[in-house]
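Troubleshooting entry. The earlier prediction with zinc ion gave an output that would not parse, so I re-checked the input for stray whitespace and re-submitted. Clean input:
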Amino acid sequence: MFIRMFMLITGLALLAGCTTSPTGRSQLVLMPESEINQMGLQAFTTIKKETRVDRSTVTNRYVQCVAQAITREVGGNWEVVVFNDSDANAFALPGGKIGVYTGMLKVAENQDQLATVIGHEVAHVLAHHSNERVSQKFAVEQGLGLINAIANPQSGTGQTLMGLLGVGAQYGVLMPYSRIQESEADTMGLDLMAKAGFNPRESTRLWINMSRAGGGQPPEFLSTHPSHSTRISDLNRHMQVALQLQSRAQQQGKHPACK
Ligand SMILES: [Zn+2]
């Protein structure tokens, strides 16, 4: 009886820890959703305190329009903030937070390219990539301590966590997502933007622009994970599926016109 009970409990623990990503890959996700979301919220608060928020109506209307079209496909409440910073950066955090830097708007030259970026970032969240990374590095019991550490990104743990959440750039923590996670975010993000009615063909154009933008790229868009050319050929391989999703979206009346 005792042994059976023990087996049941271990079985449940394994079930809770080992999940399957949206593309069918098995992954270790240990942090409770509520805790990883709180870490995301805390990280967003920290960034908002230290980075200048862009208040321009035109820019905000444009970015909100693209982001809302994407998040409508996902559900839930998402807050979108534009940051005044010349880096070509963008991120999404667990807990429903999206940040776009004004520098990104120079590289993503139209709504479909910006939708590629935001789709990619939201996909990282949907696929629990931060949770996977934090789970590999920290024990679940540290929960509350970890959330507090994020409020203090100057501390070692705070810095590491910002890096794991994909927003370490401004704190000097270069911690790119793994190649597998990047490819997953690319494919899922492409489907997502296409489902919202955006033109998936512009995704490859974005990565060409990104490689031209060169040196000043933040870690999230570093060329090594994977290389831009691998990225582009993977996207092209998935293009027919995405184009079908887009045409279905358009039949449903989804014609985003963000300016
Ligand atoms: Zn990424």
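This one parsed fine. Residues 33-50 form the longest helix (18 residues).
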